[in-house]
Design goal:
CATH architecture of the largest domain: 3-Layer(aba) Sandwich
Number of domains: 3
CATH class of the largest domain: Alpha Beta
Radius of gyration: 23 Å
Strand content: 15-25%
Number of helices: 19
Helix content: 25-40%
CATH superfamily of the largest domain: P-loop containing nucleotide triphosphate hydrolases
Shape: globular
Largest sheet: 12 strands, mixed
CATH topology of the largest domain: Rossmann fold
Number of strands: 25
């Protein structure tokens, strides 16, 4: 069966009943959205502050490939397995974006028998969080143009507006647009553009905010552009927009509670991309999970060079989180792809390519253990095409590096297939105090932070930027030099070339642009030609998604 067919056969339990039974959440602190999903009140979250924290486990992966790695699937399977072993565990995931849902990936709620449900709801609209973020973002966009139209008392230079518009869809035609056409009645004509919602600074702000007051203060700090002197910033609070923006996010700031196929609880909240944003679910959801359970399992988007680095250097740094261990997810198929095997030949045994592609896993493992300072377990997400010789090769190579490599069959068997993985993770977290480190010190200059990430994690010889970008970085250094860096880079490679597989070395990472995310509290460094508005592929997933007369959705793999 396809993922959606498995999900549609799930025996879900009412979410209020399940939350009370397993986590002790009173029904009055849940706002149900139907029978199987609900929001947790911030008042209840605040009541948990005196409880001791559980242990935090990070699930990350090798560099993504078209073969698939299964990070979310592994996160769900591991959570189910730990609950099967009698360990009170909650998983924390990001919400899927409609862009990739209708684009390249299809659904993003796990796979096989390790899924969160209701799968269709989670993938399509869910509780409306992304819509609220988009409207709050575009309200600010509208208020900028409206202010200019009515006299521009703030002296906004329309040529130096940095705030774009957003939509939760892959639409390359909107990357560069012109607004205000049609004469004075329609305002001032100027260049503009769209980003995808998951790249919005408001998405990052929602994911890092710790309260409604913190949310509103961060929204007010957003820099929308500059005056004609090129240096004086204009803030969202100058336009008196942040109060209404926060009001639009009144419900979106509350964590969403759902269940797995095995009726274990999951918090799914926030969804910034890890290749163009910081790639982690909300601080609120993660901290809530740590208070509600003895173990919280969370994921960071894409490979460990992107999502995991930002999890450590942005999320943990800002929120004071202390992860206890990491799980590095890989598949035999993906490693053979990194070893040069064509997609159509990945199901055939190829030890030579597997050995070559192992360099990608080895680099990520080195980063996790040496540069993030985290204890790690390697999880081989099992496919039926994997040969015994291939599995043995991976386990032998991991053993030579001193790391445990576990074959996990959670896709086919659910939590039962991930029990060995769960036991290895528990062996680490139950017998060792949390130990991790940041990749760079926050006191070093912005340029050095970017270079440290590129040379330490990506294997680059160095970084480069044209004079305009160097000047931008130098200008940001004066007031924002203490900010962490959020790298926007292709997820497909350690380099800026998505076709460079394995573990390329000695390349130069070109920084093509930098953007200030003052409300979020970081600097976005765009590497190469990375786009903050994706495009649809030649055959988008939308072509196969459909609905029957009785309301059954198909095609969300």
């Amino acid at each position: 069966m396809s993922d959606i067919e498995i999900a549609q056969q799930a025996k879900m339990r009412p979410i209020t009943e399940l939350a009370a039974e397993k986590l002790g959440i009173p029904a009055q602190h849940l706002d149900p959205y139907g029978h199987y999903k609900a929001k947790v009140s911030l008042e209840y979250v605040k009541q948990l502050s005196d409880r001791a924290d559980g242990k935090l486990i990070l699930v990350t992966a090798i560099s993504p490939t078209p073969a698939g790695e299964g990070k979310t699937t592994t996160t769900v399977g591991l959570g189910d397995a730990m609950n099967r072993l009698g360990k009170k565990t909650v998983i924390c995931l990001r919400e899927p974006s409609l862009g990739p849902c209708f684009g390249m990936k299809g659904g993003a709620a796990g796979g096989g028998y390790s899924q969160v449900v209701p799968m269709e709801d989670i993938n399509l609209h869910f509780t409306g969080d992304f819509h609220a973020i988009a409207v709050a973002h575009n309200l600010l966009s509208a208020m900028i143009d409206n202010h200019i139209n009515h006299g521009n008392a703030l002296g906004i230079d329309s040529r130096r507006i940095t705030w774009k518009r957003v939509v939760d869809m892959n639409d390359r035609a909107l990357r560069k647009i012109t607004v205000g056409q049609g004469g004075p009645a329609n305002g001032y004509c100027r260049e503009d553009g769209y980003d995808i919602v998951v790249a919005s600074e408001i998405m990052a702000i929602l994911c890092l905010a710790t309260s409604r007051s913190d949310l509103k203060e961060r929204l007010g700090r957003i820099v929308i552009g500059y005056k004609s002197d090129r240096v004086t910033p204009i803030y969202a609070r100058d336009l008196k927009a942040h109060g209404a923006m926060a009001a639009l996010l009144k419900e979106a700031i509350k964590p969403n509670l759902v269940q797995t196929l095995e009726n274990n609880l999951a918090l799914i909240h926030g969804g910034p991309f890890a290749n163009i944003a910081h790639g982690c679910n909300t601080v609120t959801a993660t901290k809530t999970a740590l208070k509600l359970a003895d173990y919280a399992i969370t994921e960071a988007g894409f490979g460990a060079d992107l999502g995991a680095e930002k999890f450590i250097d942005i999320k943990c740094r800002m929120a004071g989180l202390k992860p206890s261990a990491a799980v590095l997810v890989a598949t035999v198929r993906a490693l053979k792809f990194h070893g040069g095997v064509a997609r159509e030949a990945l199901n055939e045994e190829n030890l030579e390519a597997l050995q070559k592609g192992f360099s990608n896993l080895e680099r990520h493992l080195k980063n996790i253990r040496e540069h993030y300072g985290l204890a790690c377990v390697v999880c081989i997400n099992h496919f039926s095409f994997d040969s015994d010789a291939e599995i043995q090769l991976l386990q032998d190579k991991c053993a030579s590096l001193g790391v445990k490599c576990v074959v996990s069959k959670h896709w086919a068997k659910g939590g039962a297939g991930a029990e060995e993985l769960a036991k290895e993770v528990l062996e680490i977290v139950d017998n060792n105090a949390p130990s991790f480190q940041y990749v760079y010190d926050e006191s070093i200059p912005l340029w050095d932070k970017i270079e440290t990430i590129a040379t330490k994690l990506y294997g680059a010889a160095g970084i480069s930027a044209n004079p305009k970008v160097r000047n931008q970085i130098n200008a940001l250094q004066e007031n924002y030099g203490h900010f962490p860096i959020c790298m926007a880079k292709t997820q497909m490679s350690f380099s800026t070339d998505p076709n460079a597989k394995g573990a390329p070395e000695g390349h130069t990472v070109e920084i093509s642009d930098v953007r200030l995310a003052n409300g979020a509290g970081f600097i976005v460094a765009i590497a190469g030609d990375m786009m903050t508005m994706p495009g649809l592929p030649k055959a988008p997933a939308a072509e196969r998604i459909d609905i029957s007369d009785d309301g059954v959705i198909t095609g969300l793999f």
